[in-house]
Design brief:
The structure holds 2 protein chains of 2 kinds.
Chain A: H1 8-22, H2 24-63, E1 68-71, E2 77-78, H3 80-87, E3 93-102, E4 111-116, H4 118-124, H5 126-129, H6 136-139, E5 144-147, H7 149-155, E6 162-167, E7 170-179, E8 190-193, H8 194-200, E9 206-207, E10 209-213, H9 220-228, E11 236-238, H10 240-283, H11 285-294, H12 298-334, H13 355-382, H14 385-389, H15 396-418, H16 428-443, H17 445-454, H18 462-473, H19 475-513, E12 518-521, H20 533-540, E13 545-556, E14 565-570, H21 577-580, E15 583-586, E16 596-601, H22 602-608, E17 615-620, E18 623-633, E19 642-646, H23 647-654, E20 661-666, H24 672-681, E21 690-693, H25 694-737, H26 739-747, H27 752-794, H28 804-831, H29 834-839
Helix pairs in contact in A: 1-12, 2-10, 2-12, 2-13, 2-25, 10-13, 10-19, 10-25, 12-13, 15-16, 16-27, 17-18, 17-19, 18-19, 18-27, 19-25, 19-27, 25-28, 27-28
Chain B: E1 7-14, E2 24-31, E3 36-40, H1 47-54, E4 62-67, E5 70-71, H2 77-87, E6 88-91, H3 103-113, H4 118-131, H5 147-159, E7 165-169, H6 177-194, E8 197-201, H7 205-208, E9 213-218, E10 221-227
Helix pairs in contact in B: 3-4, 3-5, 4-5, 5-6
Classes of the chains: A alpha+beta, B alpha/beta.
Chain lengths: 842, 229
């Protein structure tokens, strides 16, 4: 009778349970690595889905049933356009809107206020207007607004209370007429009658949006194109979908980057599975060969070993999904869904049930781990049992040679990918380049290890020379031990160089944009606060002020499908642009007749294709104005594009004498704190503007910068710790596997400390190689991050800077940690009775 | 003056647990340079334990092991190791050569540990490899050799530093009869050529017969079984 042979499932459970008994720590680390990657990916995804969903929902409510939205600059266009469109027989309903982000004294965030004609808006935004129905007359009364439930709660206001809004440099009171139900609109919002809004915000005769409803059967796109040409410069007709997509597009690069970070964590996890499974297969090669000899088929063994990796992945993925949901819930509750760049700030968002997605994350985690286990499983299954039973190793020379060719191919492909342009403004090829370079470099590790070790000179020290010989002959094991740490360390190095380069460039940029002693600005992103000429005059007249520069910042729409571009009109000192702007390049040619100079940020070069010296048209004062690109500068404050022009040119074109920002240079000896107080005192509401010394602005900016990258540092540190733990388990399992060897060395007279020294030397040599290799690889990857991924994601350049000290310290810590790990493993190995170790094989 | 024996056992006793009977007690033995001794015994009688005590790898419960007149019990771990390095050579059943060192490097390892300079080391390694019949394989790695050839490396390594005592624990247990016979003859010849003493632990009477005298280890201690005339 044929003896019963266990199936793959049984083999799997035998192998897994024995692993669990023998190396629980190793399995736990692998599980944690997978869990980390899955948790990060799941939380980023869930937060984005919830925030984007809420954002889309909110935008939909604001636009309502409109088929086309005619949108102008934030300061608006003449309402004649509304009259013209309302009379157009092809349009069913035209609804005028004044949409403003109103500054609130003492608060950083402005409040979005919609000025609507309730009778027309009732047809287009019935859900938004519905609550007002019964109080229409009061709404039309002219001195108040309705607040959404979120705004009322945020501001702590009720019906009958007064809300102060900043208009110019003055505060104006608005009566709270009522609070909309929570179902009407989930985000902070104020609704006003359009006439009242125009009156309150000094926008008489101005609108900045007209919602159009078209009769059924109209080809919306055809119609949009037909009216586009008749609209004033700077006024665009867009489809509501474009409106909704715009904000989503602006934050997309940031979200994709976070997803890539999650992929890096998963990738590290997969490598850890690969590395630990390979070592574990090597360690168990005799037992596995015995199973084969007893009748377990090649396929059964391979499936069982892949199943081992998949089981670890499954446990890690479950933990990761649970942690991801918890982290996402916390981000939505605490940070209102803003995952770091402030682009998607929505309140009151809660997690949406996404069982399909969570299942997908579970599947990804499990598959990644199974994929990591595939190669070692295949190698174990292919090993001839007789050879493995004798304890012979694989032919690493052959494997290293074929891996080297694949590695070179990957490196070449990665280099080519790094030179390709973005796809839909996303650095897809850049990410592919990083993956290929990383993969190629890892495949070259065995060959390079052999190359370096073959050239290592003999020292005459028996311990050191034996360590070198061991590493050289067991290059497969050495490469496996190194792979996990090289992956995590090189990624850490690349990220560290990129973040450091960014920080250095950012700090230099801050110095350029904040040259004065005191900065004054209206709350960020608002449309209603500004410094009228009288207020400007008061600032100039301050005794402490040696010089005051005023700026007018506005949003202009150059392309309907893109986010608005920021226009900054500055009091410029002619001929001294390099002192006033972080200028990268300047046009040599003199301006063509009739055009004024404009200095554009890199984003305009990337997104709109503007070139140095090119003539461009900017809509100002309802007319297109010709400018030529006199220079390209670096702007880290806005990645959707910024244009700087002279304020005199701006005022002449728009008749707008107001300013939104000011920089004050103090007279020698003037006290900055006293000057800040004096500036505040010039306004009726001292809290209407943000007034700070440049030092404080710089410090705060750097704090925000560091906070934004804190998650990156934390993840990279975790990845390195996981990589190091992988090395530690590799060291301990190889030390265990070599106990008989150490026993023999003890027999022939090697001192206990010499055996430990042998392992320490091996650990130090390996980690030095790993660190040098990781530094070199990380350096190359950082070039892709700095010059390709960063530029294509955010449309700004950064100068490469290397944090030598930081990298040096981390490298030394890693080498020391690897040595300590090796010594610890060695001590454990020789602590065992040397005699028993030698007899173990008998 | 009488010659100091290479190895002397004085009333040696060993037990694994205090509440169990001793594995052996009252063992006495003197072994002089040029003597080659075989110790036989049934499984579990304590042959390997005895070998470990002789090498200073284990401590007796009572009695003394004197190697070249030096009491191993009086030495600490480092001193015992250094003595072992200088004065003892080992041959194991499972060979235990380092797979990542060449044949020459494996054989020369004890000289490296003793700090012999490279030229001298290589010369003596070449002589030893020639003596054990694997001179042509000096640059090879152990995995490229047969079991018999690998055991020759182990013998070369055990003898290259001219130890006073060679301990061989079932050195032919993993070899075919022909290789076993060649290995045993080689081991004996080399021990004799070095003018050292050798102890062969074995189950095999045929192997034991290559020694000058055979002792049986059992509950009564070491009993002479045969002596070569």
């Amino acid at each position: 009778m044929r003896p019963a042979v266990p199936g793959a499932g049984r083999v799997w459970s035998i192998l897994l349970l024995s692993q669990l008994r023998e190396q629980p720590g190793r399995l736990l680390t692998t599980v944690i690595a997978i869990a980390l990657g899955v948790a990060l990916a799941a939380s980023v995804y869930l937060v984005n889905v919830a925030a984007l969903g809420e954002f889309t929902q909110a935008t939909k409510r604001l636009v309502g049933e409109a088929g086309i939205v005619v949108r102008g600059p934030r300061e608006g266009f003449a309402e004649d356009l509304f009259v013209r469109l309302a009379r157009d027989p092809r349009i069913a309903i035209a609804s005028p809107v004044l949409e403003l982000d109103a500054a609130l004294p003492g608060r950083r965030d402005p409040l979005k206020i919609l000025g609507l004609d309730p009778l027309r808006a009732g047809a287009l935004q019935p859900a938004l207007i519905g609550d007002i129905g019964a109080n229409l007359l009061e709404f039309l009364g002219g001195d108040g607004l309705y607040l959404s439930a979120a705004a009322a709660q945020d501001l702590g206001l009720h019906r009958g209370d007064t809300l102060q809004v900043t208009v110019g440099d003055q505060a104006k009171p608005l009566r709270v007429l009522g609070v909309l139900s929570a179902d009407t609109y989930s985000q902070p919002l104020g609704l006003m009658d359009i006439a009242a809004a125009q009156w309150t915000f000094d926008r008489l005769g101005r609108l900045n949006r007209i919602d159009l409803s078209l009769p059924s059967g109209t080809d919306v796109e055809d119609f949009r194109r037909s009216i586009a040409s008749s609209l004033p410069p700077g006024v665009l007709a867009v489809a509501p979908q474009v409106e909704r997509d715009r904000a989503v597009t602006v934050t997309r690069a940031y979200r994709v980057n976070l997803n890539m970070l999650a992929l890096v964590a998963l990738w590290t996890g997969a490598f850890l599975v690969f590395s630990t499974q390979s070592l574990s297969v090597l360690r168990r090669r005799k037992s596995l060969a015995l199973l084969r000899a007893l009748g377990v088929t090649r396929g059964q063994l391979q499936r069982a070993l892949i199943g081992e990796g998949a089981a670890l992945g499954a446990v890690g993925a479950v933990l990761g999904v649970v942690a991801g949901v918890a982290v996402a819930a916390a981000i939505l509750r605490v940070l209102n869904g803003d995952v770091g760049n402030g682009g998607l700030h929505v309140v009151g968002t809660s997690l949406r049930a996404a069982p399909g997605s969570l299942l997908a994350f579970f599947a990804i985690g499990t598959s990644v781990a199974a994929a990591g286990a595939w190669l070692p499983a295949r190698s174990a299954a292919r090993q001839p049992p007789a050879r493995a039973l004798k304890g012979a190793d694989e032919d690493y020379g052959g494997i290293a040679k074929s891996a080297a060719w694949s590695g070179l191919l990957s490196l070449v492909s990665g280099t080519v990918m790094a030179c390709l342009p973005p796809i839909h403004n996303l650095p897809i090829f850049g990410y592919a380049a990083v993956a290929l370079l990383l993969f190629g470099a890892i495949l070259l590790v065995p060959t390079l290890t052999v190359y370096v070790l073959r050239r290592a000179p003999r020292s005459g020290r028996v311990v050191f020379d034996t360590a070198i010989a061991q590493l050289r002959e067991n290059v497969g094991l050495s490469a496996l031990s190194l792979a996990a740490i090289i992956v995590s360390f090189s990624l850490m190095v690349a990220m560290a160089i990129m973040v450091y380069s960014f920080r250095v460039s950012f700090e230099e940029w801050l110095g350029k944009v904040l040259p004065a002693d005191i900065q004054l600005r209206v709350p960020f992103g608002n449309d209603t606060a500004y410094l009228p000429p009288a207020a400007q005059a008061k600032l100039v007249a301050l005794p402490a002020a040696a010089r005051v520069e005023f700026r007018r910042t506005r949003q202009i729409q150059l392309d309907a499908a893109r986010a608005p571009v920021t226009l900054i009109a500055r009091d410029l000192l002619p001929g001294r642009m390099r002192e006033q702007l972080p200028l990268l390049r300047a046009a040599a040619a003199a301006p063509p007749d009739g055009s004024a100079p404009a200095w554009i940020s890199e984003a305009l070069e990337d997104l709109y294709g503007y070139r140095l010296g090119q003539t461009i048209e900017i809509p100002l004062g309802g007319r297109p104005r010709r400018f030529y690109v006199a220079g390209i500068w670096r702007d880290y404050a806005r990645n959707t594009g910024t244009i700087v022009i002279d304020r005199a040119t701006y005022s002449a074109a728009t008749a707008d004498p107001d300013a939104t920002e000011a920089s004050l240079w103090l007279r020698p000896g003037a006290d900055a704190a006293a000057a800040v107080a004096a500036v505040r005192a010039t306004f009726a509401r001292p809290d209407a503007f943000e007034v700070m010394t440049s030092t404080v602005v710089r410090e705060r900016s750097l704090q925000i910068f560091d906070r934004a990258f804190a998650i990156t540092y934390a993840l990279e540190a975790i990845a390195v710790v996981i990589g190091l733990t992988g090395v530690s388990f590799a060291a301990s399992s190889t030390a265990l596997a070599r106990r008989a060897e150490f026993g023999m060395l003890r027999h022939i007279g090697m001192l206990r400390r010499q055996v430990v020294g042998l392992l320490a030397d091996e650990g130090i040599l390996l980690s030095i190689f790993g660190v040098i290799y990781g530094l070199a690889l990380g350096g190359i990857l950082s070039l892709v991050l700095v010059y390709v991924i960063n530029r294509q994601s955010f449309n700004w350049s950064i100068d490469l800077a290397v944090p030598y000290w930081q990298l040096g310290v981390v490298s030394l810590v890693l080498i020391a940690a690897a040595a300590i790990t090796a010594i610890w493993s060695g001590r454990a190995a020789v602590a065992d009775d040397a005699v028993r170790a030698v007899r173990e094989d008998w | 003056m009488a010659e100091i024996p290479v190895l002397r056992l004085d009333s040696l006793a060993k037990r694994y647990r205090a509440d169990r009977p001793a594995i052996f007690e009252g063992l006495n033995l003197s072994l002089h340079g040029g003597e080659y001794l075989a110790i036989m015994g049934e499984s579990g009688v304590g042959k390997s334990t005895l070998l470990n005590l002789l090498a200073g790898l284990d401590r007796p419960d009572s009695g003394r092991v004197l190697l070249e007149g030096e009491d191993l019990s009086a030495l600490d771990d480092d001193a015992t190791t250094l003595l072992r390095r200088r004065a003892i050579g080992f041959v194991f059943q499972a060979f235990h050569v380092l797979p990542y060192l060449s044949v020459e490097q494996n054989v020369a390892l004890p000289l490296e540990l003793l700090g012999v300079e490279e030229g001298e080391r290589r010369r003596r390694a070449a002589d030893m490899l020639a003596a054990v019949g694997i001179g042509a394989l000096a640059a090879r790695l152990p995995r490229e050799l047969s079991g018999g050839e690998v055991q020759r490396i182990a013998i070369g390594r055990a003898l290259i530093h001219r130890p006073r005592l060679v301990l061989a624990d079932e050195p032919t247990g993993n070899l075919d009869p022909q290789s076993a016979a060649q290995t045993l003859a080689l081991l004996r010849d080399q021990v004799k050529a070095n003018a050292g003493a050798g102890i062969l632990i074995t189950h095999s009477r045929a192997a034991a017969d290559t020694a000058d005298r055979i002792l049986m280890l059992d509950a009564r201690g070491l009993t002479p079984l045969a002596e070569r005339r």
